[in-house]
């Protein structure tokens, strides 16, 4: 089984569509380190803050800490090993013990050999992890956050968990009359809409269908803010803005804070279960 096939089979806690992207984020972090520095070990105490920031920024609200994936990824098939500074096995998922024992994690020799023999494997793995766990609007931000250079090795394969409907974007933009549901932006260039996206409410990677009851037409700014959990849509179709979002300029207040409570009239009411999923798995509620 190839490295990409193994990472697509990693065991992740799931229940009722809840997100737990801790292992994928650790793998992306480790792949970025491999790209920059090679196969050397990653000291937990050094990586802890960076991994915690990744999980905070791209995981669900109230996500567990980085000690869980750092230790538990070693339980998956021939991907990752953890050892103490004395060469002993992992002390477990206690952050205190991981720090105190000088625990380090690294890819297994078979993974290193494959990454060395086929350099394109690295980006195949990156795209597979991103496609399976995050919406496309966040891919570039995640790569920037972990320090991955997507142009350093050739892009060969893009894996998807299931086929996408090629007519989805066009159907959503037509249904919303080519206007952002949140701010009414409707820019065009040579008659073609620019800066508008078909946003999934329940992410495609988490079984969100390509249907109008799981879609919003959003401008690029509000699409990213929606997928980052800054904005959500309530069950009575009003915009909610998280209290955790900060921004003080007049433009920021006008484009984000002023949206709070603003009504939205979707052409087809979003399915309540998709809205609930976004509220619990994406939106950063107080």
Structure report:
With 286 residues, this protein is of the alpha+beta class. It has two domains: 3-146, no CATH class; 168-281, no CATH class. The chain has twelve helices and nine strands. The protein has a three-stranded antiparallel sheet with strand order 1-3-2. Strands 4-5 form a two-stranded antiparallel sheet. Helix 2 (22-37) crosses helix 3 and helix 2 runs antiparallel to helix 7. The longest helix has 16 residues, at 22-37. It is elongated and about 60 Å long. It starts with a helix and ends in a 5-residue tail after the last helix. Mean pLDDT is 92; it is low at 153-160. It comes from Actinocorallia libanotica. One of its GO terms (molecular function) is endonuclease activity. InterPro entries: DNA-SBD_ScoMcrA (IPR058813), HNH_nuc (IPR003615), PT_DNA_restrict (IPR011396). Residues 2-149 form the ScoMcrA-like DNA sulfur-binding domain. This is HNH endonuclease.
